[in-house]
Amino acid sequence: MLFYRENRAIEEETIGNDGDAVVSFVISRQYSKAVSYGIQYLKKYLKEPLDINANGRRVIKGLKYVMVSEIEESQRLPFLCYMLWFCSHEAAELKLWNTRY
Length: 101
Hints:
mainly alpha; 101 residues; single chain; 70% helix; 6 helices
């Protein structure tokens, strides 16, 4: 099953389906690949995080299931900062003000 998901992630990455690629990397427990791929995708939306499209929302949703303890130490802080940034904007968009603060 994990081998199938790894191949599926590579296929999704090849055709440009970023959201499904990240989800497949996470399911196959390749957290470092998921994080590096997801961060590369999210860099486009750093200045305008509320303009993120449906595919970007799928990337964020997939990255929420990454086990941070399993990724490389050099990726941890940038990953957590990106997730804090985008998830706080997501909470504000949903009017969950206490969550955002």
